[in-house]
Amino acid sequence: MTTPDDADFPPDAFEKWDAADDSDFYVQPRFVTHIDDRAIAALTSFYRETLPTGGVVLDLMSSWVSHLPSDVSYAEVIGHGMNEAELAANPRLGRRFVLDLNRNPRLPLCDSSVDAAMISVSIQYLQQPVAVLCEVARILKPCQPLVISFSNRCFPTKAVAIWQALDDSGHAHLVALYLRRAGFADIETRTLCDGRASVSGNSATY
Ligand SMILES: C[S@@+](CC[C@H](N)C(=O)[O-])C[C@H]1O[C@@H](n2cnc3c(N)ncnc32)[C@H](O)[C@@H]1O
Question: Which residues contact 70 (CB under 8 A, 6 or more apart)?
């Protein structure tokens, strides 16, 4: 299951309580939001200052919402996720694809073809996170940003064991470690919203 870059984490680090195929879990669309309104507003504001206006943006592990600022135009927003109906309902997406990254981390996108990428409240579900982030690095143009956000909520049966074992601060360090291993630089961690259901973000450039 692991690639060399993911291999030297503790044994069982990327096991999940629910080891069934992820496509079973995501077969039904969920038209819900996974963080509260204040956290969404904080994330949207962070996207406004971080993602390049007019650029091609990849929303990896997306759903029916991308949390992008409604008054900012992008050349294209490419959405990836596990449920076709959720992605089809997302008004920001110009292109979309469904792919189980725990089965196949290879992204069907060309090298250096994207101006920015984001992974919103989903990194905890990846069983080969470094392999996936290496792919993000491959498809990003040089020196362009990746924003990974996460909160204190998750689907516990689907989050990997190492995520379950850590607190908020540990999550930030873990995501920074994934990014370093995938070759990202200028890694920054920010708390975007204080209080319950806060969202933290690691941004980095490749
Ligand atoms: C909590 S939702 C977050 C959705 C969206 N990014 C948001 O901010 O509302 C988690 C998302 O992770 C994605 N996901 C979970 N497991 C996955 C897997 N094995 N491969 C690819 N994507 C996965 C699904 O698309 C799912 O919608």
Answer: none
